[in-house]
Design brief:
The chain is of the alpha/beta class and 354 residues long. The chain is built from 11 helices and 9 strands. The chain has a domain at 42-277: Aspartate Aminotransferase, domain 2 (3-Layer(aba) Sandwich). The strands form 2 sheets. The chain has a 7-stranded mixed β-sheet with strand order 1-7-6-5-4-2-3, with helices on both faces. Strand 8 and strand 9 (319-321) form a beta hairpin.
């Protein structure tokens, strides 16, 4: 009996998820997955509770409730330099992954090539692969991970139909400059490419760096799907609330696809998201400061352990040079470190909790 599709044959759980399971098993501190352990603002929780108890628990429009789409339009006007029509150019989705999946299915054909900048977020590539698109890669060089127009042109071919742009980047923490985004804009215009952004870490940035939404640069708006969400900014990763901002002619097929795949985003939480988007600016200042303190602590700890960190400009990830370690790979070294920690715990206690 072979009821497994060719698309998922050989598919294994991501290293991120696997490390989380192992970390939970040994009672460790999880440094492998972006879990967001900051407390949720009470006003957001109160809004969610009010919505639940007010029986706002039925289906919504596939594109989201009008009040939230209006709030999103106001937010991206204030923070992203974008001015969408909330009725036709904003789609609320069941997480940013749903926005990404719906965009791929709605706007590209199977076999189309999608360019990813490496290092990349594994889910971006994994989703594209399982849906039948052709991942293409431009390897960026550490520590700066700069993008040049010549490199982009050298990495694409006649099959390329889209570029995925993640800024601030998961996992490098790099924030793309306007100069780099202008280069992407020129190539996208010349080759008629779709641009799909992942801006989920837009408010987690350091040393006062500004976040530049790609769609606000050059002529990118007309060919860009800007994907953002609530998870990281408001520490509600389990709520699964994202949104796509894009021209009406792209938003409509994305909304139709989202309806077929997900029906709608969680109804009561959409109402809570309105409250989140109305938080004062000092919330975002405090958020960035808190993560900057954690970033610095982590980088100092990595240096103390003999690993050289690549200090991120944004996001809450840190890459470190592990080539001096004994393992065959970063995963192998993590497994070896886990084993050494377990041995030490066993020596300390005859009945350790594992």
């Amino acid at each position: 009996m072979t009821f497994i599709s060719n698309a998922v044959r050989g598919l294994v759980q991501s290293d991120i998820r696997a490390m989380t399971r192992e970390c939970n098993r040994v009672g460790g501190i999880n440094l492998g997955q972006g879990v967001c352990r900051l407390p949720v603002e009470p006003a957001i929780l109160d809004a969610a509770a009010r919505a639940l108890h007010s029986d706002m628990n039925s289906y919504t429009l596939a594109e989201g409730i009008p009040q939230l789409r209006a709030a999103i339009a106001g937010k991206v006007a204030r923070h992203n330099g974008l001015h969408p029509n909330p009725e036709t150019e904003v789609v609320v989705t069941a997480g940013t992954t749903a926005a990404y999946v719906s965009s791929l299915v709605a706007l590209l054909n199977r076999g189309d090539g999608i360019l990813f900048f490496e290092p990349f977020y594994g889910y971006h590539v994994g989703v594209a692969s399982i849906l039948g698109y052709e991942p293409q890669f431009l390897e960026l060089q550490p520590p700066g991970f700069e993008i040049t127009e010549a490199a982009i042109r050298g990495a694409i071919n006649e099959r390329t139909r889209a570029i995925v742009v993640c800024t601030p980047s998961n996992p490098s923490g790099r924030m793309l400059s306007e100069h780099e985004l202008q280069a992407i804009a020129r190539v996208a215009h010349d080759r008629d490419l779709l641009v799909i952004t992942d801006e989920i870490y837009e408010f987690i940035r350091y040393e006062g760096r500004p976040h530049i939404s790609p769609a606000s640069v050059g002529e990118l708006w007309s060919r860009t799907v800007s994907i953002m969400g609530m998870s990281k900014t408001y520490s509600v990763t389990g709520w699964r609330l994202g949104y796509a901002v894009t021209p009406a002619e792209l938003a409509l097929p994305i909304s139709l696809t989202h309806d077929l795949l997900y029906i709608c985003a969680p109804a009561p939480l959409q109402h809570a998201a309105i409250t989140a988007l109305e938080l004062p600016d000092d919330y975002y200042t405090r958020l960035a400061q808190t993560y900057e303190q954690r970033r610095d602590r982590m980088c100092n700890a990595l240096r103390a352990s003999g690993l050289d960190p690549i200090v991120p400009e944004g996001s809450y990830f840190v890459l470190a040079d592990v080539y001096s370690r004994r393992g065959e790979s970063a995963l192998a070294e993590a497994e070896a470190a886990k084993g050494r920690k377990l041995e030490a715990a066993l020596r300390k206690s005859p009945t350790p909790r594992i």
